[in-house]
Amino acid sequence: MKWLMLSLGIVFEVLGTICMKYAEGFTKLVPSILVFLFYGISLAALVFVLEKMEVSIAYGIWASAGTALIAIIGIMFFKETISITKIISISFIILGILGLEIFD
Fold first, then answer.
1. Rounded to 5 degrees, what are φ and ψ at 26?
2. Whole-angstrom Cα distance, residue 78 to residue 36?
3. 3-state secondary structure the chain
4. Which residues lie below 8 Å from residue 50, measured CB to CB, with a gap of 6+?
């Protein structure tokens, strides 16, 4: 259950970050409201996860998985530049997440 809740927290963190892009400096009402809603849900999920998981593990996975997913989404959907450095760096983030999960 903790992994499902952590996954939901990550998904809502990513949705909140995507809405930040569309909020255009909080000038667009709906995306601006969604930023707060999605981040609120994300943080609530993380709070519940912390009852069952160490904060260093839970937060590390939550933050790094969100970062890696947003980097990938930026490249795929927002036409951000891609480079070998970005690919290697995202790979290191993913390896770090796996290391936290496997060696916990």
1. 60, 30
2. 21
3. CHHHHHHHHHHHHHHHHHHHHHHCCCCCHHHHHHHHHHHHHHHHHHHHHCCCCCHHHHHHHHHHHHHHHHHHHHHHHCCCCCCHHHHHHHHHHHHHHHHHHHCC
4. 58
Nearest CA among 16, 15, 14, 8 for reference residue 44: 8
The residue range of the domain holding 34 is 2-102
Single-letter residue type at 103: F
Domain count, the chain: 1
Rounded distance, CA 62 to CA 93, Å? Answer: 12
Mean pLDDT by 10 residues, the chain (104 residues): 96 98 97 98 98 92 93 95 94 88 77
